[in-house]
Amino acid sequence: MKTWLDAWPVYRQLTGSDPLGRGKAARSKATENVVSRTATADRVVQSVCPYCAVGCGQRVFVKDEKIVQIEGDPDSPISRGRLCPKGSASKQLVTSPTRETKVRYRRPYGTQWEDLDLDTAMEMIADRVLDARRKGWQDEVDGKRVNRTMGIASLGGATLDNEENYLMKKLYTAMGAIQVENQARI
């Protein structure tokens, strides 16, 4: 016959077969009913942590097209399943209710911010890049052909991995920019 003492973990630990309290003595009904988020995921997507240039592997667990958990990827030769505190908290980067999902814009000489849809903001950026390239373009300098623009520059950050930095360098060079630098090298 079970008594109220049987529900008390310390009593189960002292009287049962688990004197160290590492197994059955420490488990409750609530513990038995807990299912991990990774076990209920529909799929697992391999990814790379976005925080620094180390490139730690991540496993992103997705259920109903929503991220439910992000963990280190044990198959990654770089991190072998480990993540730093920032990498471990990267789920918050994409699921936080405080994450900005709209583009905020303040017009020149404006005093108020306004929300823009992403397509409008991307068009504005493209127009400005083309305008800056056109206005700063140089065909020749001191009689030497240079085909460059001084109207565009890039300063990359340490959160970019090697592949992203490579693509940025290719993009800016293709646009004619020669001022391409990275914060990690400075």
What topology does this entry show?
Elements: H1 9-15, H2 29-33, E1 43-48, E2 57-63, E3 66-72, H3 85-88, H4 91-95, E4 103-105, E5 114-116, H5 118-135, E6 137-141, E7 144-156, H6 162-174, E8 177-182
Parallel strand pairs: 7-8
Antiparallel strand pairs: 1-2, 2-3, 4-5, 6-7
Describe this structure in words.
- It contains 6 helices and 8 strands; from the N terminus they run H-H-E-E-E-H-H-E-E-H-E-E-H-E.
- It is an alpha+beta fold.
- Among the domains are: 4-33, no CATH class; 43-95, ADC-like domains (N-terminal domain of TfIIb, Single Sheet); 136-182, no CATH class.
- The longest helix is centred in the C-terminal third of the chain and has 18 residues, at 118-135.
- It starts with 8 loop residues before the first helix and ends with a strand.
Q: How would you briefly describe this protein structure?
A:
The chain has 186 residues and is α+β, with helices and mostly antiparallel strands.
Write out key terms for the chains shown:
N-terminal domain of TfIIb; Formate dehydrogenase major subunit; elongated; iron; electron transfer activity; three-stranded mixed beta sheet; 186 residues; formate dehydrogenase (NAD+) activity; metal-binding
Distance between the termini: 73 Å
Provide the structure class: alpha+beta
User: For the record, what is the CATH homologous superfamily label of the domain at 43-95?
Assistant: ADC-like domains
Rounded to an integer in angstroms, the radius of gyration calculated over CA atoms is 27 Å
CATH architecture of the domain at 43-95: Single Sheet
Instruction: Report strand order across the widest sheet.
Output: 1-2-3
Helical amount? 25-40%
What sequence of helices (H) and strands (E) makes up the elements? HHEEEHHEEHEEHE
**Average residue-wise pLDDT:** 86
